[in-house]
Structure formats: structure tokens, C-alpha cells
Amino acid sequence: MGKKDTVGKIYFRDTVRFAELINSVLYHGEKILLPENLVPVEREYPSLFGNADKHRDVFMKDVVYHILYSLELETESDYSMPERVMVYDACEYEQQICKLVGSHKGDVMADGYRERKSRLKTEDVLMPVVTVVLYLGTDHWEGRKQLSELFRIPSIIQRITDLRIPEYDFYLAEADYVNAKDYETDLREFFQALQCRKDKKKLNELCHSERFHNLEPEAVQAIAVHIDRKRLMPKVKMEGIEMCQAFDELMEDMKMEGKEEGIKEGERRGRISILRQMLEEGMEESLVLKIAKCTKEELAVAAGR
Hints:
Elements lengths: L2 H10 L2 H12 L11 E3 L3 E2 L8 E2 L2 E5 L4 E8 L6 H23 L9 H6 L10 E7 L19 H6 L10 E4 L12 H9 L4 H8 L2 H4 L3 H10 L5 H8 L3 H38 L4 H8 L3 H7 L3
Parallel strand pairs: 5-6, 6-7
Antiparallel strand pairs: 1-4, 2-3, 4-5
Helix pairs in contact: 1-9, 6-9, 9-10, 11-13
């Protein structure tokens, strides 16, 4: 399991954060899901093909409305995601049925053969599963969102018949495009940091804001790992330093990276200038490539192409 997976699961397993995220994605911000009504559930499903067992990333049960919520954290697009969610949910419903069957042992099935075949009594019900995929990678999710997107049905079939193939999909939230200000918990800072991970100036401003300085270590770890500033995480966890100092060190790292990038850019410009002088002196491009050991791209820039 990667560092992002581990830290992300710990971060979103907090019932307050989980409830706020689900309410935002599913219920338009209305507080339908309450943290005090959530119970974490551990689920492991056997693989169909002998590979490692499948685990839900974060799975919660609402004990009031009797709905199961699954949160899958993805840092890369998954083209088979609809099928994967469908298999997870099918395994969950099968486990629920098996549990109900176990609870009926010794009971007389009122409807005889029909109930034995169904494995359920007429009054039995299952808990529905709602899955949200939170994409933590950059830009938009490029994976499939619906099961039908995995099919290629010939147009003649679609034209001649009303072919009804069962659909399966999931709710998708993309970290780079959520409205971070809609969140009251440290999810606001988490999403803000991800949305400006490529903009060092904005990230610098965020890291020196008052709310950032008051973040819990768990939130700092999640932010540091998901914006690829892993040096910050062990310092906060092991040394217990203050958040302001932690973010100051983070920004110092970023400044050093900026300096290194500036040095590399300066060296590149220097090479281009020398190559330009060699060409102006009338040297053949093939000879310049051989002597200077530069790339064709650098030579093209020097030649003004």
C-alpha cells in the first residue's frame, strides 16, 4: 500500500470529515449525514481470480437511515472503475444475504421452497451501498464513469432494437474542481492545497494563512503527502513541531527547488547563447551538434526555428 493510500484512508476515516464530504457531494451541502450516526465498517471481499482480496478504502454505516457509504480514493484514473464498484457492491450484498441466512438457521421458512431458494424471508431487506470516488490526481478524471462506456455496441443493433443493458455508475468528485470554500473543516485547506500544488506562489500564501497554522498534524500529513512534499510529514509526526514551523520548512523546500530550477534555466540559456555564436560564425549544424554535444531542440532554439 502506497503512502498516499495509507495517509488518505486515515484522514478520511474521521467521521466529521467523511460526513462533510458526503453531504457536499450527495446532498448539496445539507447536513443529512451526521458524524455521530456513522460507524466505520471493515470490509474485505475475496478476489474472483485468486489475486489479493479487495478492500474498501473507507466504508461507513449510517445507523439512523441504514445506508452504507463507500469512499474510494484514487490518485490515478481507473478505466475499469464502474466494473470495480459493481463487483464491490455485489460482494457486499452477497455478504448481507449470507448474514441474513445465518440469522434464519433453525427458523421455519414461512413460504417454504420460495424462501429457501431466495435465501431470504419476505420481510428481509438489504442495506443499500452508495459509492463516491474521490479523484485526488491533477486535472480531470480520465477513467470511465459508467459501465456502458466499457461497451462498444454496433450501431445497427441500437437502431433495430431497444437493447436495454443494465447500467452501473458511481458518484465522482474531483479534488481540483470542488469548491473548497464550501467546506468548514480542514477539508477546505486540503482541497485548496491540492488545487494550487502547481502554483508555488498561491501555495505559499495558503501555507502562511492563519487557518493553515492551526491545522491538526493528521491534516498536515495528508496535505504534505498529496502535494508531494513528503519531507514535511515525518517531521510533524515524529518531532511534534508547531504547524507554522512545519509550513515554514515546507516553503523553504519550495524556495530551494525554485533556485535549482533557476540555475538549470540559466545554464540552458548559456548553452543556447554559445550555440547561437557558433552558428553565426558559419559552422555547420552537424558540426555544432558533434562539438557542443547539445540536443537538436537546443540547436533549433539557437537557430531561431
